[in-house]
Amino acid sequence: MTSGDAQLKRLYPKLTARERAILVLRAWNKGKEEATEVRATMPEAQVMEFNRLIDLMNRAAKLSAYIGGLSALVGQLAIRWAWLCTLDLWAAEAWKLGGYIFFHAKEPITESEYADRLAAARSEMVPVDEFAELLTERHEAWSDGDFEGKDEDGEPLVSDAAWEKVIEEKRRALARLVREGTLEGKGRGSRLRIRAASFYGWLGEDVPLWPDWSQSYDVRPDTEAEKVEAERRDREKAREALASSPSIGRMIRDTNPKADLPRSYGDEITDALEKGLRAAWVQRWQELRAAEIVLDEVAREFDGEDPLEPDARKMLVEVRAELEELHGEMNERLGGLTRKDEPEEGFIKPLREAVFG
Q1: 137 pLDDT more than 80
Q2: What is the pTM of this model?
Q3: Torsion on CA atoms 109, 111, 114, 119, rounded to nearest 10
Q4: Secondary structure class of 263 (helix, strand, coil)
Q5: Rounded Cα–Cα distance for residues 106 and 214 (Å)
Q6: Strand partners, 218
Q7: Is residue 272 packed enough to be buried (19+ CB in 10 Å), middle (13-18) or exposed (0-12)?
Q8: Tens digit of each residue's pLDDT (9 = 90 or more) over 76-127
Q9: Could you give phi then psi for residue 287, rounded to 5 degrees?
Q10: pLDDT tens for residues 291-333?
Q11: Distance, CA of 305 to CA of 298 (rounded, Å)
Q12: Whole-angstrom distance, CA of residue 15 vs CA of residue 18
């Protein structure tokens, strides 16, 4: 026996019940047997307190199963988050395909159909505000005082006040042209409407004719009417498939809030995932914090000694790290992930009762 061992043996009788329990806890966490002297030298007066601490140690050790279950649930949360990200990627690719069709694939139409649509567009009576807005968009005589800040590309932005001022000027100018007979129009004030052919003729331009899903038409002879109709049906099926892609409905509405786009099954899937992910992350975080708080309370009973075995502690650390990483990613996409470090009583009370009785 070394002098150190001999000295330690002389110390055992002087240990408190708490110090004996701490020695047992340290041995357990190292996967070793406790020294026989821990119990053999214990006075009768310490037995009750020592047994209480050992019982507390055993109860706290059972939280390893709780942590394992929490780890599995966080893993499921990560999988569901990956599912939503996959849907977002799907929507982004569908968006690219839809954009390509819109910008680069002409919409087929027969000559007679085109003529009918052009005639309707030329005769349309357009509210004066729409043409005033168009002229303001083309306005170039802005002064330095009309700008306020810059856009995302670093270009100067026209202030709202300056924009509204020019719109009003264009509105009055158009009304004057109608009164003078230069433009064909009906009504007065905000109810004034101007015939499209008259307005664009004044500009020296053709009346624009926009397809439903393209930038331009591919005008075909009437003899190809059946082929044109077949191509249009195929285009419409493609558009319906793209529009029903999960998440793309949200992207379209974000770009154009006025878009008349019916909700699809894909929208329902995305909405359910978003709602479920928000609730699940908050719940997992509170479960984690409840475990951490109770374990800290147990540790104080052992003068700060960790009541968890190393593997369980490592798992708990990993669960926290994964939840924190998910919070950063998910909150940017979803928002509304409240990170409460003090869990609700419903999360912490059952754990306290299970450990402390």
Answers
A1: yes
A2: 0.71
A3: -170
A4: coil
A5: 6
A6: 108
A7: exposed
A8: 999 999 999 998 888 888 888 888 998 999 999 999 999 999 999 999 999 9
A9: -65, -40
A10: 999 999 999 999 999 999 999 999 999 999 999 999 999 999 8
A11: 9
A12: 8
Half-sphere exposure at residue 334, Cβ-oriented, CA atoms within 13 angstroms = 25
Which alpha helices (DSSP H) does the chain contain, by range?
3-11, 17-29, 37-40, 47-61, 63-104, 111-123, 128-138, 160-180, 196-203, 225-243, 248-255, 265-301, 310-333, 345-356
Reading the block at residue 167, the tokens are 């719109």
In 10 A of CB 70, how many CB atoms?
20
Which residues, in sequence order, are bridge partners of residue 109?
A: 219
Please choose, from the candidates 321, 336, 338, the residue with its C-alpha nearest in 3D space to the C-alpha of residue 75.
321
Q: Collect all residues with Cβ–Cβ distance below 8 Å to 114 and sequence separation of at least 6.
A: 209, 217, 219
3-state secondary structure 122-177: HHCEEEHHHHHHHHHHHCCCCCHHHEEEECCCCCEEECHHHHHHHHHHHHHHHHHH
Copy the structure tokens of residue 57. 């140690």
- Residue carrying structure tokens 């109810």: 191
CA distance 134 to 215: 18
The pair of three-digit structure tokens given for residue 162, joined into one six-digit string: 């300056």
**pLDDT-derived band at 267, boundaries 50, 70, 90:** confident
Distance CA 159, CA 147 (A): 5
Q: Are 270 and 87 in contact (CB under 8 A)?
A: yes
Position 287, amino acid: E
Segment 55-71 shows an average pLDDT of: 96
N residues, the chain? 357
Using alpha carbons only, give the angle 91, 93, 95 rounded to the nearest 5 degrees: 65
Which one, of 54, 55, 259, lies nearest residue 267 by Cα? 259
